Amino acid sequence: MPPGERRGTGYTRTRSARILPFALSKLEEKNATYMKNKATIWWALYEYFPALKNKIGADTVNLPINAITLNSIFDEELGQFTFGFQATNEEHKYRIEILEEDSHYTTQLPTVVTFAQHDTDVPRPDPDILDVHLRIARILKVSGTGLAVQESLWRYEGHIVYNIASDGSTDLERILSDKMLMGI
Fold first, then answer.
1. Which residue has the higher pLDDT, 106 or 46?
2. Given 18, 27, 64, 113, which residue has the most CB atoms within 10 angstroms?
3. Which of 47, 23, 50 is CA-nearest to residue 37?
């Protein structure tokens, strides 16, 4: 038993995760097309989810309002939009909406969670950001785009190309297209 733990209590490893992905952050990029695409994404987020305006942006993706502490196995699931948090009538209480039933991990999620706050200097996850995450997850599911992104990422997972074939048979175009999600 770990030091300081009482019998009958459980514990788990946790990880802080971003609700909206870090990929939306503003990094000093030299590729003008990449920066233009990112600006377009933020324009669309503000246009279709006006609650995000003046709350979060490319410069502030790392703010605590965009963070949530989860059991470490759910960090990746959240980032893949396989589940989301649907607000209830009670403040800081959410129903878990599972959008990817085939995921082994989402079957382990509780049906309802209430976010506690143990340090008043650290805010709870922002309800508007949680709502946008859930809406995006729904859009990805209904449109089939979420599955296409996952398939693209999985295609080469574990199959990293260490050596490029000298005969030109390595399909670099396909590898780069998948990694950059250009085929979606």
1. 46
2. 18
3. 23
Instruction: Determine the Cα–Cα distance for residues 59 and 122; give it in Å rounded to an integer.
Output: 19
124: DSSP letter: P
- Domain-wise residue ranges, the chain: 14-143, 144-184
Helix extents (H) in the chain: 32-48, 73-79, 127-143, 145-155, 172-179
Whole-model pTM: value is 0.74
d(CA 181, CA 110): 32
CA angle 129, 132, 135 (to 5 degrees): 155
Q: Report yes or no: 51 and 131 within 8 Å, Cβ to Cβ.
A: yes
| 83 contacts 98 by C-beta, under 8 angstroms | yes
In what side-by-side order are the strands of the sheet with 93-98?
83-87, 93-98, 112-114
Q: Taking a C-beta distance cutoff of 8 angstroms, is the pair 95, 111 a contact?
A: yes
pLDDT digits (tens, 9 = 90+) for 155-182: 555 555 545 565 666 665 555 555 444 4
Look at residue 150 and give its three-state secondary structure.
Answer: helix
Between 145-155 and 172-179, two packed helices, what is the crossing angle to 10 degrees? 130
Task: With H, G, I as helix, E, B as strand and everything else as coil, classify residue 86.
Answer: strand
State percent of the chain over pLDDT 70: 69
What is the rounded distance in angstroms from the CA atom of residue 58 to the CA atom of residue 15? 22
